[in-house]
From TrEMBL, chain A:
Annotated Gene3D superfamilies: Periplasmic binding protein-like II (3.40.190.10)
SUPFAM superfamilies: Periplasmic binding protein-like II
Protein name: ABC transporter substrate-binding protein
Residues of the signal peptide: 1-20
Keyword field contains Disulfide bond: no
Gene Ontology biological-process entries: thiamine transport
Gene Ontology cellular-component annotations: outer membrane-bounded periplasmic space
From TrEMBL, chain B:
InterPro entries: MetI-like (IPR000515), MetI-like_sf (IPR035906)
Biological process according to GO: transmembrane transport
Keywords, alphabetical: Cell membrane, Membrane, Transmembrane, Transmembrane helix, Transport
Compartments it resides in: Cell membrane
Annotated membrane topology: Multi-pass membrane protein
Family: Belongs to the binding-protein-dependent transport system permease family. CysTW subfamily.
Record bears the keyword Transport: yes
Gene3D superfamilies referenced in this protein's UniProt entry, alphabetically: MetI-like
Domain ABC transmembrane type-1: start-end pairs: 212-420
GO cellular component: plasma membrane
PROSITE patterns named among the record's database cross-references: ABC_TM1
Membrane-crossing segments per the record: 46-66, 216-238, 245-262, 303-321, 355-377, 397-420
Name recorded for this polypeptide: ABC transporter permease
UniProtKB/TrEMBL annotation, chain C:
Any one GO BP annotation for this protein: transmembrane transport
Subcellular location: Cell inner membrane; Cell membrane
Main location group: membrane
Topology relative to the membrane: Multi-pass membrane protein
Protein name as annotated: ABC transporter permease
Domain ABC transmembrane type-1 residue range list: 99-301
Similarity annotation: Belongs to the binding-protein-dependent transport system permease family.
Keyword list, A-Z: Cell inner membrane, Cell membrane, Membrane, Transmembrane, Transmembrane helix, Transport
């Protein structure tokens, strides 16, 4: 014990001594973290000499809130869902910065115009745009593949179980669109009690055919096992299965749910200057485009789209697999952080109550 | 070897030669006092043995948890950042309609909170009680950053007419003191109406009470199942010769070393409709390909996986108690004419009760707190109360609500522990 | 466990039925572990028995997940596998470091939990112990509170453990425990203690206190009495308590998530890493290795025990 104590104290001191040239980035782990290491961290360290420490969290928002409230902030940069970034910004937990200091786009347009709508706020800079799309097993539908959200709800025509996540945020929109609501009106409808009833009524029609998943890793496993014939899944994971692993899966972009991830810097971050440098470097046009080489999530900058090249296998064009491609965007529902900050708790309670009933 | 600490030694000493009738120890002290003193000493010694651990737990657990659970009834998100309006509420009793002073206080507080970037905290606090109002605060805050011009009431209603809602004012009054019972009310599917009275929430919003019931019911069922499966195994292990039982013990310990995540995944592989067990049943011709059994992503799956995961927690305490049971008692009972069933029921089983008590306590309490396994294999019926606690900790970031749910869970388990003590008699089990 | 000679035919029949039932329960215990072993050699990144695996096609199997345990996190995974490569793996591979951390943290937290827990259980099982129920309830409470709450509470406390001193007016800042080995060890010890308490007190119920008095009356001091009389008799309970405590630490992820820094990543933490994207079959490879390792360990212990029995001339019964 004692030796360990001495050892850990020594380690801590060492870390403090070396801290002048490092930045701690808290991200989501797994393949996503790997893509950030390759596209952002390696060139960043090469250019600036600053070491990047990656720390994985289940959802970086929880440790961020805990660290700020405990007054013990150890992370410098956090990768958050935009909804959490906005919420924590309004609560004064994050450092504010001027969007004008960000690198301009490749075509010279100022950063504020170059970023996708809603991806730059007072405290957050977007890095990726990712979608929740429908994936299906092509071998299960030899007579014609499903193509729309309505097909997802049609178990007569397209037999087999369906995979859906256990969350109101990623199910209600799909039910509404399948019921004929235009993608642009989803939040207006969902703001009314009748709209919520309508979404649940539509979900009722397939309730007995749904396998509910919890972790993002589950849907592809369910699809690979043949346990479900269609499921919603994160588009990057779907791409991995289709292209990386050669599985006979197809993707339906109709009614995909688009969300933005963003970098934020907490107040009292231990290395604020390095953190700013890192955020600025990583959200540069070229870096964002480079990331698409390792994972199929879209860059948050418009000017990056043109620079997106081949997948790491060297032959697959990434552009059509991006959730931000023109085709995929036609009926996309874009996440509304304000709506969910207001309604998440209420709808989660209703959703869980509905889930438990028969 | 007179041992002054031992009450029996004191009793053994015979009082001699005294005439006043009180019993005395060998060194002439009154026996009653000597006994009391030695008992005090014994109590102190027992307490000293427990003290290091008690201090450790107090410091590393009770204090941190206390700080955390305090959030369930203490939330100054509104009162600390809206001081003027809170003061107005304190000065005016419930039922007073907001006057000009109230609107002025609201406007001043909103501008100040918007400047200080704390408006989100205020809005979040009110949103807990009146869903949908967080954006009311943040959007008004954005417009109010430069200050609001009088007349305040009209100015605010101009920005958003929801500011006149009586329910909102009722909720702000509730939140104007940091102490609140609202999170506990919400945890019991209760809320306050516009007049501040406690009412049940709409039926379709009720979820927590049902989840508490389900959690306890499932835990009880799983405890019973682990007992039914664990008892024969523990008995076998305890009665076999050491060399064979130790080898079989490996089979009990192996699942125990294996990560929860791995075992849960493994049950998915076994139980799902395209899984190993269904494949074998189809291959054997017991069921048709179209009639594959649904054994997972429902309550069955939760029960099977949790029973498997918690089984060693029943077997090991039972085993360590059964090892200490002297087999000659059962033999004596048999030689006195008891049938094997009677000998088991009247002689052997009662001696295993301490182990059973410990195992049941372990399994039940662990089952109440588990959520990862039910979340992954439980399907629509796999949500337990801990899932909601985790959701409020990580998704909605409503830590006050999580703390209230956790406090209720803790209280419920402690009440059950007390009942268990009353009914089964922990003194009989000597568990504590 | 032979059937006694006086057993009736019905009792014999029941005895064999009982053995069959036990066999089935053992099968239930072990089946999920057996399944993961072949799956850990799957060539595909899924937890599925593929058709190629069922046909015993060698292409359906691979060592890639075992390989990834070593190469993941290495500086130069593609270098030739000489001594330098292995040194790189030992120093940098994430799974190797996670294993080291799990063992260090598990070992120290188990020692702490078992020592404090056994001592307290001895006190608790004395009939004269005051406030027994209330204290017992406090001591087992770490088991009841959902981990996520405990972990967050501990994080706040460990961020500034001396805040408590502030209440009595002492300096209230003395560094932090969050992000250190000591912090994680203390947290895991706390979580393991209820298991030790419950199992050891249960074993002490059957313990005859007059044995201690006999030892004392024969001149043994309390320490000798404890180590020579009490300890050997309650050892099974202490061992199963320690086992519970170790496993609790070895499979704990929530407290690690909050309290551990980047230097204290453990095996379960590594397993849950990236579960948002994919559960890597590497976790099956880890599980298989642990199974093989623990079979080897337990068998060795058993063989050593038999050997010492033979040497001491104790007849195995």
């Amino acid at each position: 014990m004692k030796r360990l104590l001495v050892l850990s104290t020594a380690l801590t001191c060492f870390a403090v001594a070396a801290s002048a040239q490092e930045v701690n980035v808290v991200s989501w782990g797994g393949a996503y973290e790997k893509s950030q290491v390759e596209a952002y961290n390696k060139p960043f360290t090469e250019e600036t000499g600053i070491t990047v420490n990656m720390i994985a969290a289940d959802d970086p928002a929880t440790p961020l809130k805990a660290q700020v409230e405990a007054g013990n902030v150890t992370g410098d940069v956090f990768d958050l869902a935009m909804a959490d970034a906005i919420r924590l910004c309004d609560e004064g937990a994050l450092m504010e910065f001027d969007p004008a200091t960000l690198n301009p786009g490749a075509d010279g347009s100022p950063a504020e115009e170059d970023f996708v709508d809603g991806s730059v706020t007072d405290c957050a800079v977007g890095n990726i745009v990712w979608g929740t799309a429908i994936g299906f097993d092509t071998t299960k539908f030899p007579d014609g593949a499903p193509a729309t959200a309505a097909d997802f709800f049609d178990v007569q025509k397209f037999p087999g179980k369906r995979g859906l996540p256990k969350s109101p945020k990623r199910t209600l929109y799909l039910a509404l669109i399948a019921d004929g609501v235009p993608a642009a009106d989803v939040y207006d409808v969902l703001s009314t009690p009748e709209g919520v009833d309508r979404a649940f009524a539509k979900l009722d029609t397939i309730k007995n055919d749904v396998v509910w998943w919890e972790a993002g890793a589950q849907p592809m496993q369910l699809l690979a096992d043949g346990e479900v014939s269609m499921t919603t899944a994160y588009n990057g994971r779907l791409f991995d299965a289709m292209v990386g692993e050669g599985k006979p899966f197809g993707v339906i972009w109709d009614a995909q749910y688009l969300e933005i991830n963003a970098f934020v810097i907490p107040k009292d971050a231990p290395h604020p200057e390095e953190a700013l440098k890192y955020v600025n470097f990583a959200t540069d046009t070229q870096r964002l485009a480079d990331q698409a080489k390792y994972i199929a999530y879209g860059p948050a900058r418009v000017s990056s789209a043109g620079l997106v090249g081949l997948y790491q296998d060297g032959k697959t064009e990434m552009a059509p697999h991006m959730p931000t491609s023109e085709d995929a965007m036609k009926t996309a529902v874009i996440d509304d952080p304000e709506f969910w900050a207001d309604r998440d708790a209420e709808l989660s309670e209703r959703f869980n109550s509905w889930l438990a009933g028969n | 070897m007179a041992n002054a600490l031992d009450p029996h030694a004191a009793i053994a000493t015979v009082a001699t030669g005294e005439t006043d009738g009180t019993l005395r120890t060998a060194d002439g002290k009154p026996l009653a006092r000597a006994l009391a003193r030695s008992q005090t000493r014994a109590r102190r010694r027992a307490f000293l043995l427990v003290l290091p651990l008690l201090a450790f737990i107090m410091l590393t657990f009770v204090v941190p948890i206390g700080q955390m659970l305090q959030r369930s009834f203490y939330n100054d998100g509104f009162s600390a950042h809206m001081p003027q309006l809170s003061q107005w509420f304190a000065d005016h009793p419930r039922g007073t309609d907001p006057d000009d002073a109230a609107w002025a206080a609201l406007a001043a507080d909103l501008s100040a909170a918007a400047e200080a970037r704390t408006i989100g905290i205020v809005g979040t606090r009110i949103n807990y009680d009146v869903p949908g109002t967080r954006s009311l605060f943040t959007s008004t805050g954005r417009k109010a950053r430069g200050g609001i011009e009088p007349p305040y009431r009209e100015a605010l209603l101009e920005m958003n007419d929801d500011w006149a809602s009586p329910r909102l004012w009722s909720a702000m009054r509730e939140a104007s003191t940091p102490l609140t019972t609202n999170f506990y009310l919400a945890s019991l599917d209760r809320t306050r109406n516009d007049a501040g009275e406690i009412v049940q929430v709409q039926e379709r919003q009720r979820v927590y009470v049902m989840l508490f019931m389900r959690t306890f019911w499932l835990s009880l069922l799983i405890t019973a199942l682990t007992f039914i499966l664990g008892f024969p195994i523990a008995h076998l292990l305890a009665t076999l010769p050491m060399r064979r039982s130790n080898l079989l013990m490996i089979l009990v310990l192996l699942p125990f070393w294996t990560s929860l995540l791995v075992r849960t995944t493994s049950w998915m592989v076994l139980l799902q409709q395209q899984g190993v067990i269904n494949d074998i049943l189809v291959w054997l011709g017991l069921i048709g390909n179209g009639q594959r059994l649904q054994m997972i992503y429902n309550q069955t799956g939760t029960i099977i996986a949790m029973t498997h995961i918690l089984l060693p927690f029943m077997i090991l305490p039972l085993y360590s108690v059964m090892r200490t049971i002297n087999p000659s008692y059962v033999r004596a009972a048999r030689s006195l004419g008891a049938t094997s069933w009677t000998a088991f029921r009247r002689v052997y089983f009662p001696q295993t009760l301490p182990g059973l008590g410990a195992g049941a306590l372990l399994v039940f309490i662990l089952a109440v707190g588990y959520y990862i396994t039910p979340a992954l294999v439980g399907g629509s019926s796999g949500q337990l109360i801990s899932n909601m606690i985790a959701m409020h900790m990580t998704d909605t970031l409503n830590w006050s609500m999580a703390a209230a749910l956790a406090s209720l869970l803790l209280a419920a388990v402690l009440i059950l522990y007390w009942l268990y003590d009353r009914l089964v008699g922990i003194d009989n089990l000597k568990l504590g | 466990m032979a059937v006694p000679t006086y057993a009736s035919p019905l009792e014999r029949a029941w005895h064999y039925a009982y053995l069959v039932i036990c066999g089935l329960i053992f099968f239930f215990l072990i089946a999920p572990i057996v399944v993961i072993i072949p799956l850990s050699f799957n060539a595909e990144p899924y937890f599925t028995f593929t058709d190629r695996m069922l046909e015993f096609d060698p292409d359906g199997y691979s060592m890639r997940w075992y390989d990834s345990l070593l190469t993941f996190g290495m500086q130069r995974p593609d270098a030739p596998r000489d001594l330098g490569w292995w040194a790189d793996a030992w120093a940098n591979a994430k799974w190797v470091n996670a294993a080291k951390n799990s063992i260090i943290i598990g070992f120290f937290s188990t020692i702490l939990a078992t020592a404090l827990g056994t001592l307290a259980a001895l006190g608790l099982s004395r009939p004269e112990m005051p406030f027994r129920r209330a204290i017992m309830a406090i001591l087992i409470s770490p088991m009841i509170v959902p981990l996520i709450i405990t972990a967050t509470g501990m994080f706040f406390f460990y961020s500034n453990p001396c805040s408590v001193l502030g209440w009595v007016g002492l300096p209230s800042n003395c560094g932090r425990l969050a992000g250190t080995y000591v912090g994680v060890i203390l947290a895991h010890a706390t979580l393991g203690i209820p298991f030790v308490i419950i199992t050891v007190t249960a074993t002490l119920v059957g313990f005859d206190q007059s044995l201690n008095r006999a030892a004392a009356s024969l001149g043994a001091n309390p320490r000798t009495t404890f180590f020579r009389i009490t300890m050997p008799l309650i050892l099974p309970g202490v061992i199963s308590g320690a086992l519970f405590a170790f496993v609790t630490s070895f499979d704990e992820v929530v407290a690690v998530l909050f309290i551990a820094g980047p230097d204290q990543q453990t095996i379960p933490r590594q397993m849950w890493n990236g579960i948002r994207e994919q559960i890597s079959p590497a976790i099956l490879a880890v599980a298989t290795l642990l199974v093989v390792f623990s079979i080897a360990l337990l068998t060795t212990v058993e063989l050593l025990r038999r050997r010492s029995e033979r040497i001491r001339g104790v007849t195995p019964h």
